[in-house]
Design a protein that fits this description.
Radius of gyration of chain A: 17 Å
CATH architecture of chain A: 3-Layer(aba) Sandwich
Strand order of the largest sheet of chain A: 2-1-3-4-5-6-7-8
Shape of chain A: globular
Pathway (chains A, B, C): Cofactor biosynthesis; thiamine diphosphate biosynthesis; 4-methyl-5-(2-phosphoethyl)-thiazole from 5-(2-hydroxyethyl)-4-methylthiazole: step 1/1
Oligomer: homotrimer
Helix content of chain A: 40-55%
EC number (chains A, B, C): 2.7.1.50
Enzyme class (chains A, B, C): transferase
Protein name (chains A, B, C): Hydroxyethylthiazole kinase
Largest interface: B-C, 35 and 34 residues
Distance between the termini of chain A: 12 Å
CATH class of chain A: Alpha Beta
Structural class of chain A: alpha/beta
Number of helices of chain A: 12
Largest sheet of chain A: 8 strands, mixed
CATH topology of chain A: UDP-N-acetylmuramoyl-L-alanine:D-glutamate ligase
Order of helices and strands of chain A: HEHEHEHEHEHHEEEHHHHH
GO molecular function, one term (chains A, B, C): magnesium ion binding
Chain lengths: ~280, ~280, ~280
């Protein structure tokens, strides 16, 4: 299995290259995503004006488009950024927050798929809705399980040539052919807002790192996404051991992201991937 | 007195039902309000596009409309959400941040009253301004005292059939007939931004819990609002005992919200209500 | 040298007067800037609607205009606020985030200079771009050094009659005639988002304090800006000594701002200014 062995190497690459991760993200997630990227060692830029978003996505290391706090104005910036990323070959991640539960963002997310996201990351309800199944989501809650969304995720991945990461107690990532599971984390991650959004942003940082080290023809977004999920999982578990609740979990998790290194990864994050 | 005895029961209901609390709130408060709701045990959703806001307010457990960082675009989402909440019978809370000090939000807040808020929560200057008195507010500062606003609060409550909660060193809540006072808290709460906005959001979670347990004809928003203020007050006092300043107060207060339980309430939060 | 001796006095004035600092700032910085101002002892107000921004800037103690997460809508609020501040004699600070790297904000920042900012604060790349040099910035990163921007800063200060503060490992502040350097701080400040934006907001609080204590003809924005940078530097160093990483740095720094007092300043912040 090639995936886990690369977590440490990709992490080191993030620190060496400090890839610029362009986020068009929601109003709740923006500060926390930026701080997560900085803690990891990447360089965040939150830019959503359509003109500026197109400029930045073309030169960024990776792009995140997150559909939370959707508005018609923000949708223009999302389209401009995703189109520019696609045209420039910038890896980009779609985070379809609450798609299926609310109509405008469900429509916009469907359109955004046409720009060819490198990775789609969401909870099971969101992935079911994006794949055209009945979502049953209630806002940002996941009422469906990761298993419920397995077939829809595989189908979505094959139809759009993308990696689909479904977040849950154990995450499931697929490119439509290969499937990996990632454990770890901590229940307090569900008691902190925008934790999934931060996972999406950090995944984009790993995509950027993988893209710069591998040749353009051969780089593997699935491996990079698995590594990101494993890194987040090991930091979540570490923070959960010291936190006194959801409030103190946030600084502890950011500290853990900054303290994580390639050597620790070999014994920690890698062990979370596809455990026997 | 029926109010204090229900704090623990309502808190338990919040944890069991995890009510969806829809917030149309300001840019400063959005992350903190979401984290406060998650820490308490509710489920936040920050949605402000007019189309999506109307969809969500109709099915949410409760709605918060907060006039901070007002804009003409955001005002549309506020009206759509408040109208849908009114039509669907969703309890909703109006938080008139800096009303009286700035013209657009003063105008919008006056219009929002027509949608029949279940609770209005603000500082004394804001309540005076909303009631049509001269506010004298300076931005979000309260220059008037809770006592100064007592008559205006009672009159506002009777005129609009709402509960009015005036925040101060000791909070005063009234439905125009019955008055309760709630103490507790800590001076550091005044050194953290959006603490009042978070109190509004948590009050909405208690409204949602009360609405689901009581019959639609008999539920009592005043009791629920008092319980929310008491819960926040006891957590504020607890966090103040361990915090080293306003920065460490925030995670300590969120941890205290998550640690609060029905049993502790009986001896803590209840004692803050209408002390002799 | 008059600058350092005034840090403590200005800090005491901030606490006594709690100046209202009006911020038209970016979506990432808004909560953190508000909390930094509250921790220091000032009173933040985040208002960006053009009508409300003009009202508030005319009566505020100071104004900050920050070009991060620029949009055409937000640019209107920036112009309205800066114009009103200029007309009313309210001191105001321009923070040209990522100017030079993105086109809309570079255009808007150039226009904003016409409203006569009291202070311009940015990193070297941003100051070079604002002065008309090739910035070479990559989003919010500073690729140029403080020394690289020294001539551009002096020229910008003289041309617009403003103070220019260039942030770096050692900050350099000039009014085009006198130059001061301020050390201190901690490397973790570069791992927390919107730290520069918070420095801008705190500088505005010191401007407001200086403006109220000195006669209108004689007050010295350079001295006030130096004092603010020294206060931030001493708090950064203090927080860095106790923080376990970028996550725990944030509450530690806010606690340090609140704990800072005029007496400590004499031995701490003052020593950071123009060391031999």
């Amino acid at each position: 299995m090639t995936a886990p062995s690369r977590t440490g190497a990709l992490l080191d690459t993030v620190r060496e290259r400090t890839p610029l991760v362009h986020c068009v993200t929601n109003l709740v997630a923006t500060t926390f995503s930026a701080n997560a990227l900085l803690a990891l060692g990447a360089s965040p830029a939150m830019v959503e004006d359509p003109e500026e978003a197109a400029e930045l996505a073309a030169v960024a290391g990776a792009l995140v488009v997150n559909t939370g706090t959707m508005s018609r104005a923000r949708a223009e910036g999302m389209h401009a950024a995703a189109r520019a990323a696609h045209d420039a070959g910038t890896p980009w991640l779609l985070d379809p927050v609450a798609v299926g539960a609310l109509s405008l963002r469900t429509h916009v997310a469907g359109e955004l798929l046409a720009h060819g996201p490198t990775v789609v990351r969401g909870n099971a309800s969101e992935i079911l809705a994006l794949a055209g199944e009945v979502g049953g989501g209630r806002g940002v809650d996941a009422t469906a399980t990761v298993d419920d969304a397995a077939d829809a995720a595989d189908e979505l991945a094959r139809r759009h040539g993308t990696v689909v990461a479904v977040s849950g107690v154990v995450d499931r990532l697929t490119d439509g052919r290969t499937v990996h599971h990632v454990g770890g984390g901590h229940p307090l991650m569900g008691r902190v807002t925008a934790m999934g959004c931060a996972l999406g942003a950090l995944t984009a940082a790993f995509l950027a790192a993988a893209r710069t080290t591998d040749s353009a023809r051969e780089w593997d977004p699935l491996t990079a996404a698995v590594a990101a999920h494993a890194a987040v999982g090991v930091c979540g578990a570490a923070a959960g051991r010291t936190a006194g609740g959801p409030g103190s979990f946030v600084p502890a998790w950011l500290d853990a992201l900054a303290a994580l290194d390639g050597a620790d990864d070999a014994g920690g994050a890698d062990a979370l991937v596809d455990p026997a």
